[in-house]
Amino acid sequence: MKLNSNISKVKQGALNVLQLPVPVVILFIATLTFLLLPQNLHAASTDKKILIVYQKAHGFSQQLIDRLQKDISKIGYQTEQMLLEPERLNLLKIHKQQLLIAIGSQTTKKLLEANIKTPILSALIPRHITKSLSSAHPEKKNWSSLLIDQPTDRQFHLITAVLGPHKNVGILLGPYTKDLDKALKKASIKTGHNVKIEEIESSDQLSTSLKALNNSTDVLLTLPDPTVYNKGTIRGILLLAYRNKLPIIGFSQAYVKAGAIAAIYSKPEQISEQLTIIIKSFFINKSFQQKKYYPDKYSVALNKNIARSLGIKLTSDKAIITKMKKAEKQ
Amino acid sequence: MNSKLSFSGLLLLPVSLFAANAENTLAMLGSEAMYLDDMPVIISATRLSQPLNESPVATTVIDRQMIDASGAQSIPDILRLVPGFTVGYLNGNSPVATYHGQSDRLSKRIQLVIDGRSVYLPTQAGVSWSDLIISIDDIERLEVIRGPNASTYGNNAFQSVVSITTKHASEERGHYIKGSTGAHDTADAIYRFSGQSDNLDYRVSMGTKNNTGTDLLNDSTETDYLSYRLDYQIDLSTQLYYSGGIQDSLYGDVLETVSDMDNEVEVTTAFQHLRLEHHLDDGNSFSMQYYYNYTKSFSSELVTTISLSDFGPPLTNIDDFDVYDTYDLESERHDLELAYYFNPGESLRLVTGGSIRKDKVIADNVFHPNTDNSLFLYRYFAHGEYSVNNNFLINAGLTYEKNDISGSDLAPRLAFIYHLTDQHTFRLSGSKATRTPTIFDENGYVAIQQQLTQDGGQPLNNPLLETILDGDILIDPFIYASGDVDSEKITSYELGWMIQLLDSKLIFDIKLFSDETDKLISKIDYVGDVPTENIDDLFGPGYAGEGAKDSINAAKTETHGFEISSDYQINNTWRLYAYYSYIEIKAEIISDLTDSDINPDRQNTIIGRLEESVPKHSYGAMLMKQWENNLSTGLSVYHVGDMDWLDQTHNRYDPTQSFTDRSAEEYTRVDLVVRKSHKTSGGEVDFSLILQNLGGTHFDYTRTNFTDASQQTVNIPGSEQDRRGYFELAFKFN
């Protein structure tokens, strides 16, 4: 870790004074890449400079950054990474990067506020934050996001694959997710489920709404709304649902570890793979094709012990994903 | 290395993130951290219940809806819903429950655990159902394992295990106040507060329970209790559970021989329970738990006054003396247990661990002098489950126990579970379990020991009497344990069939069973002269009634029968639960005892009592309905066939005894519960009306009258289960 940070300092140092020679190792890799790459690609790509900007890199985001740098290098573009600090924002404006990859919500927000002209592709960003940032920065055109949220249809496909068709799906929406109401209803009809939605404005209303759902639904689908699901409420929700034998579909791997039976999530390598495809397409088309992208590639986390305790037999994650993909195609 | 560092980084992240949220922009709330941050394990392996269709032994789960709909006023009341269980009220403050009969007032052969803590009382060698320091409102569910399960629950999980799970402290947040009034001057109140502070959830409950008891007996109740529970998330993978409580009670004490006397028994109970659970990164976990139970009970009742002078020389001028039935008992239990939960492979789940327990009883006049009345018990256990394939499970367990009284015992269990289809599951299981004799069985010594005086308190000056008595103290023991008692044994076989229809909304469970017990401990007349006894020297053998009683391994039983239960969630508002149980029992004296060990009359009594102790037929049903406007009702019917409790029975083999009543004659009980809740902006108001015994009065423990050996009709007033009603009013608010 210490070594990593030293390296990144060296890289940052190199970025600050761009005209200085790059370290020998990078030169060597670049030379090697140059020699190995097909001539036409090389010709097309050498001028494509991408800067991965981040504010905090821990665990998951660090893995994504590392992987992304490798994946981008493989297709012949130049990448650098940069820890975003306030004094560096102005430097970004004079940089020659053709594309900025913003890791996380805070990074995206800072870049948008700094009014940087370079196109931005955000990653690890939730849908509702892109929504609020879009309305705050309507002028920003060359900005797209690969969302961290999984599409609603896919959540219902997971429910079918895990619990079977025609389920009564309970959903708790809060201020950050209530705009999904229609989309969820539409997706449930499309996938053959019924939804029962309870909206709450504050966590005080949680207990009543959750009890209402417990009595009338087969499964609770959670969506990441901080008013509904936060550190203070998670224990109560999981325990109450478990007590009432109500399985929970979580929204992260950690949720599954905590007590949900299943969740869809994308691994760093899956996000990186999709980002790389979006980047390629961006350079070919000179713009982003979509304002936001949902993850194409995903994994499924399962808690077999809890499922079993609730009398639910889970097959393997691979079998579940196969079922989901089949359903998605239909 | 890397992952550990990032893990600790993430650990700090939520705090800083939420702190930032508070001061900064709300728009960034619910950022990607929600997806990426770790969360504590909430539903852990130790909390997981087994799916009913994979349980190695027939199991009944009574959930919160059923508890509410039953209108239960005590925990045994809830057990009326369990096939094979019989519940009786020895008196208004002493409910008793048993599975497959063979029980006296102490529920000796049931293991009762609350959140993993055994509440079996070493002093009484059983469960004191009124002194559990628990409010029914705090219970999340009861799981009743109908059969021995020593490999999981250890010592005394002999006939069945009742496992109570209380609500996690994070459930039912806010204030809760409930008042109850009704029959027999009932005046109960409960206050509970549940709150949260960062990673800590806590609950404090306190309550008082008061009534004048049933009409015919001196069986009032005055109980006050305080309990608390803390659930603390130390870090993402470590949870601490801590609970404790204290209860003070004053009960009207029913002394059957002198039932009109106004006596009382004071009982104080307390407990402390600490459990630490840690989840490892590989999905395995371990737990460590320690608990301490304390009970003190005191009663002193004047039984009779003896005038020795009435017997003439050499007992002239001897002062009269009062005989008190005095019990001053204190007991403690310390128990430390370590367990490791692990999955060596995808299809194998194991738990292994060990525990050490110390029971100590402090009591005057109850044990042989100079004996160490403590019992150490060591236990090692391992049980696991192997999925041969999706349809076939093998469940096995083994417990090794060693204790100071009966030495070491091995209790194995093996079960095969086969899912024929998604709807049909069969289980075949066999298990053995033991019940350790109590300290009282081993060291019990209860005697009238009276220093004789004469002429109004002067020292005894009667050389002849002093020679006969070998001093001036008259000793008449009525309990004299000769010791050397072995553990009771049970071997149980079960064939089960579970049918889950209509998407598991209709569940049937059928259990065929065959149980054999051996070495059941019974009281018999002490064989030979009791070494300390000198009253016989004065009056001749046999004067003092039946002489001293001893505890020995005397009998064995064979029990066969079947139980069927069904739970039907008819729709979102209707639910019907029903069961039927058929039991046959045969008892005999164990073969290595002869007529000189137990006299034939006593042998008949032991056999007769055991064989009468099980109702052949019993059934019950409960219809639950959720009406519009938050109105819910529960209608329950319970039917129990003729039976006797072991300490309140006649001996059918003794022709001189022709009792007209059983201690629990066949009865049908009908209860109705109506609950209405009204939600307001600030909280909730609940009204409940509980009506019990709508079908009429009956007695479920004590007999009303009988004809004794001299053909006299004796009337012993029983605990009358009369028609009664309770009204409850509860408020919930934040």
What's the short story on this structure?
Chain A is α/β, with parallel strands linked by helices and 330 residues long. Chain A is built from 15 helices and 12 strands.
Instruction: For the record, give the distance between the C-alpha atoms at the N and C termini of chain B, rounded to a whole number.
Output: 45 Å
Could you tell me the number of beta strands of chain B?
37
Largest β-sheet summary of chain B:
22 strands, antiparallel, barrel
The helix count of chain A comes to 15
Describe the fold and architecture.
The complex is a heterodimer of chains A (330) and B (734). Chain A is an alpha/beta fold. Chain A has two domains: 2-148 and 269-293, Rossmann fold; 152-261 and 303-329, 3-Layer(aba) Sandwich (Rossmann fold), CATH 3.40.50. Chain A is built from 15 helices and twelve strands. Chain A has helices spanning 2-16, 24-36, 39-45, 59-74, 89-94, 105-113, 127-136, 152-163, 181-191, 206-216, 234-243, 253-258, 268-285, 304-309, 317-329, and strands at residues 49-54, 78-83, 99-103, 120-125, 143-147, 168-173, 194-199, 219-221, 248-250, 262-265, 292-293, 299-302. In chain A, the strands form two sheets. Chain A has a six-stranded parallel β-sheet, sandwiched between helices. A six-stranded mixed β-sheet of chain A has the order 7-6-8-9-10-12, sandwiched between helices. In chain A, α4 (59-74) crosses α13, α8 packs across α9 (181-191) and α8 packs across α15. Chain A is globular. The model of chain A is unreliable at 1-18 and 37-45 (pLDDT under 50). With 734 residues, chain B is mainly beta. Chain B has two domains: 2-36, no CATH class; 52-242 and 266-297 and 319-733, Beta Barrel (Maltoporin, Chain A). Chain B is built from nine helices and 37 strands. Chain B has a 22-stranded antiparallel β-barrel. A five-stranded mixed β-sheet of chain B has the order 1-6-7-4-5. In chain B, β13 and β14 (285-306) form a beta hairpin. The radius of gyration of chain B is 28 Å and the shape is globular. Chain B starts with a helix and ends with a strand. Residues 1-27 of chain B have low confidence and may be disordered. At the A-B interface, α4, α6, α7, α10 and α11 of A face α1 and α2 of B.
